[in-house]
Specification:
233 residues, alpha/beta, Spore Coat Polysaccharide Biosynthesis Protein SpsA, Chain A, nine-stranded mixed beta sheet, two-stranded antiparallel ribbon, 7 helices, 27% helix, globular
Length: 233
């Protein structure tokens, strides 16, 4: 895919209950003077995305209002955000998914170098590529909540928060295409991990090592404070 054709989907539908005491609307929590969702949009654009679709849910009107007027940014609503996992949010944006689309999380800060490595590594077609961090025990990672990944070289074998055997963390940044939508569609209420596992069973899910690139999952008040201290442009 040429840079000019790349687009991005950003998931921003969750309630963010663990952050509620300091930020009523998680995607609008401020880090370094900007809302988290704007950081995600900026990261996508720096990686070559010309169009960005943000999936809203909790306080969707407030998030959409914060994005109004931004060139190339559209929003779609996930009406089932309160009761369904994040794969349902991606399904709400299925019309915006093309081969080579970026998929990012509104509550993850990711550095340009991380997305550069992800894009440079490419993706299986059909299939997906997931940015993974192999620095197990990294102090910025909440081991009790992070999504874990088991790999065999660059091949993803399994993924999930409850994995006992794993060798990497899910950084919340993907290269995807219609194959992920097709993998999610048979489930009644899928998580993204359900789709990744389905593609992994077909040998179509690649792990891209981010090396020492910066990323941060901003999931609670402690993480928000740490993210503000350690954020790297």
């Amino acid at each position: 895919m040429s840079v000019a054709d790349r687009n991005a989907v950003i998931l921003a539908a969750g309630a963010g209950t663990r952050l509620r005491n300091v930020a009523l609307v998680k995607p609008l929590a401020m880090v370094a003077g900007k809302p988290l969702v704007i950081h995600a949009i900026d990261a996508a654009r720096a990686a070559g995305a010309r169009g960005v679709c943000v999936v809203t849910g909790h306080e969707g009107e407030a998030v959409a209002a914060a994005l109004s007027g931004l060139e190339g940014v559209t929003t779609v609503e996930n009406p089932h955000w309160a009761s369904a996992p994040n794969g349902v949010s991606l399904l709400a944006a299925r019309d915006h998914v093309r081969p080579g689309s970026l998929l990012l999380m509104a509550d993850h800060l990711v550095s340009p170098s991380l997305l550069e490595r992800l894009v440079a590594g490419g993706q299986p077609e059909p299939g997906l590529a997931l940015a993974v961090d192999r620095r197990l025990g990294h102090p910025a990672v909440d081991e009790s909540d992070v999504t874990r990944v088991r790999t065999d070289g660059s091949r993803i074998i399994d993924i999930g928060k409850a994995l006992r055997l794993y060798d990497a963390y899910d950084c919340g940044a993907f290269l995807i295409g219609p194959a992920l939508i097709e993998a999610l569609a048979p489930f009644s209420a899928p998580s993204l991990s359900d789709g990744v596992r389905a593609l992994a069973r077909q040998g179509c899910a690649r792990a891209t090592d981010i090396g020492d690139a910066f990323w941060f999952d901003v999931d609670d008040a402690r993480a928000l404070t740490l993210a503000a201290r350690s954020f790297r442009q």
